[in-house]
Amino acid sequence: MEKAESMKIHCSLLSLVLVFQFLSLGLTSSAYTLPDKFFINCGSNKNINTTGRQFTGDLNSISFFPKQSEIVTANNQAEDSLTLYRTARVFKQPSCYEFEINNYTVYVVRLHFFAFSSSTNLSTAVFNVLTSTSEFLLLENFTVEETSHPPVVKEFLLSITTGKFRIYFIPQVSSFAFVNAIEVFPGPENFIPDEAPHISPSGNKDTSKGLLSKLLHPIYRINVGGSTITQENDTLWRNWQPDDSYLLNPDVVKSQSYSVKPNYLGDVNEYIAPDFVYQTAQVLANSSSSDSNSNVTWSFNVSKNARHFVRLHFCDIVSPSPNVTRFNLYVDRNFSKKIAPYDIVSQLAAPFYLDFEVDSDYSGSMNVSVGLNTDSDWRTAFLNGLEIMELLEKSGSIPKISEPKKDIVLVVVGSVLGGLAFIGILAVVIFWGLNCRKPKSAQPLEWSPLHVYGAGSSQGKVPEGTIIGSPIPSLNLDLKIPFAEILYATNNFNGKLVIGKGGFGYVYKGTLRNGLKVAVKRSDPGSGQGLSEFQTEIMVLSKIRHRHLVSLIGYCDERNEMILVYEFMEKGTVRDHLYNSKFPSLSWKQRLEICIGAARGLHYLHKGSARGIIHRDVKSTNILLDENHVAKVADFGLSRLGPSDQTHVSTAVKGTFGYLDPEYFRSQQITEKSDVYSFGVVLLEVLCARPVINPSLTRDEVNLAEWAMLCKNKGVIEEIVDPLLKGQIAPNSLRKFIETAEKCLQEDGVDRPTMGDVLWDLEYALQFQRTATGEPHQDSTTNFASELILPDVKRFPSFSQSINEMPNLTQDSFISSEDAVFSQLNIENAR
């Protein structure tokens, strides 16, 4: 009887233990459950089940906008494995998908791309992808190879806060973006740590913090000692590669496998890595040698001088008993760590992993090794799996896109009321402008609509508020170039022909049908901005010609396009040759001749007509060089006609920080001396070959003009001269050049020289240089006179028009625009 009772108690206790074990297993597994969102089948209204996930057709939701995207469908029936890749959503403008995030954690974001055969050649797409979280740039200038290649899946791990999370698709120049499928789902708890040991290329070790604020891009997932693991067999739908192709010394290893489920302990579970990773390993075969040449080494190509998150997976399936195996881990050549598995886990076949943040060096490779440790009772070393993720910190810029309309009635009513209010304000402004006009203030240009043909032109696009009075002379329609010719010249605005970019849009290298090479400057299509500057540039350049001013070949104003076509300047901008290592450096003599050429162009603008023209945006990117390094001033979108009484013109401040005349900035009154100040900054830029504003330098050095004058006053100006010019500059030439720049940079405009005076001084600086180098003497005055004849002389040289041929421009022939399309304040390379 006692025996029976004892048996019952024993069975009850056993049952209770089993219940507790079951509950504990349940609690462990309940810590993370596979998510059911967000899995998106793009460009479809069908829901597709694949590998345990249901991808929902994006047409069944409002998760993307704007809605003006396109759907592309594969021409042929796809294989069962490619069912997800039969459709794609195509974006021809910046667009996004939006997800509502309910909890803050590390998320897995996967983007699927497959350039299947269709009416749209998806392999020609070039685009960027970025997120709203920290504006992480996921993909840059991304393109997908044609359909003969398998689908491309790009994966990223990042922390996402609660609220709205967006993924932006941004087409590059004249291209488009597309995506076949998207995954956004939370990873397991503690999936990625916030800090990890940091290993530098020298082997130094410290602690790196803030991993959760960074973007991780997996580049390698290796199933060491095993075969390929596909997403169908992975707990989080990952792909793992075998390690064979990464082994440097395959002769010293042997593969080992284990058929029983691993003993998961603590925070390690099958979602960190699947069973298959921990059930296989590569084991050091030669256990009799402690020579480092017998180490097992894997080598991986990685980005140079970048940071990587490295996770190493271990599971002792090779030792005969616990606590007998210890071995060494090596990362590259300078870091080693003793691995004692049973200081971390207490059982055989119990998985664990180690995380490191590793800096790659200039070699572009990363080596991971395991080798013998002399303290080990069981002389072996092993590794089960390895992951390498690049840490990305590069950010993009969130584009402006059309938000979805939530209440069409409110939108319509609001638009009507807003329109009425705007009309009322506009009427007041016009009335005030007519009655309160000051004699010297800037007036808008009295434009007649451009004479163009066909619908969709800019006819009628004259900015509201323009006063239509006596029309200016009609634009020369011989300069108008059909849009079809522009498309031919630029190969349909091929992104490979882009040679510049600014706030206005892009500049393309083109070739007209007659073989003439041109530069095509295209405003963002349909933006409706920058019309005033567009028209101003046409008006200025169609009426003046000079060897040192860039020539306008023509313009196009069709289909809501604003396009200017210039002569092609083979050698690019002056700035390119000062900072850009792709361009050859300029000698001192070349730099002097370039400055002289630019000064001649500006002097012609200032004095070539009764009123003169103020450029208003003189800088090194607006001085271009032809194939012979002849300098030509460019970009006249901000130009203004000078005052009738030779004083000043009142106008809103326009230009580029660093080059702006401080007097103009304070008073908003511009004269030709403002161009002189800007040109003085260019002179220093040419001499020193550094940006005019560099925030990374010390306070005294940030502003080039201030720093150079400080050095000049201290008598150490030679210390900031471009090192490539050392030994080239004659002392007298340098002295004259610095004096000229200093005169240009005087605080008060009345104390600055005219561009004619600047030109004389630069000619003398060149003569000093020629004399020092033994070149034949040339008379500066003769040179100068051959370029610019004063008004009492009848004709200019053949490269310019006569004074009588100059346009009879009024002050209203030039307009100040607040638009930022053909000019950019505080963007030095805007044009």
From the structure above, extract its key features.
single chain, 831 residues, alpha+beta, Jelly Rolls, Phosphorylase Kinase, domain 1, 4 domains, 7-stranded mixed sheet, 6-stranded mixed sheet, 13 helices, globular, disordered N terminus, disordered C terminus
What are the SSEs and their pairings?
Elements: H1 2-30, E1 39-41, E2 48-50, E3 53-57, E4 64-65, E5 70-73, E6 87-91, E7 95-101, E8 105-113, E9 127-131, E10 137-142, E11 152-160, E12 163-171, E13 177-179, E14 181-186, E15 195-199, E16 205-209, E17 215-223, E18 241-242, E19 253-257, H2 275-278, E20 280-284, E21 296-301, E22 307-314, E23 327-331, E24 335-339, E25 352-359, E26 365-372, E27 382-383, E28 385-392, H3 408-435, H4 483-489, E29 498-502, E30 505-511, E31 517-523, H5 531-543, E32 552-556, E33 563-567, E34 572-573, H6 574-579, H7 588-607, E35 613-614, E36 623-625, E37 631-633, E38 640-641, E39 649-650, H8 662-667, E40 669-670, H9 672-688, H10 704-714, H11 731-744, H12 755-772, H13 780-787
Parallel strand pairs: 1-3, 15-25, 17-18
Antiparallel strand pairs: 1-14, 2-3, 4-7, 5-6, 6-13, 7-12, 8-11, 8-14, 9-10, 9-12, 15-16, 17-28, 19-20, 20-27, 21-26, 22-25, 22-28, 23-24, 23-26, 29-30, 30-31, 31-33, 32-33, 34-36, 35-38, 36-37, 39-40
Helix pairs in contact: 7-9, 7-12, 9-11, 11-12, 12-13
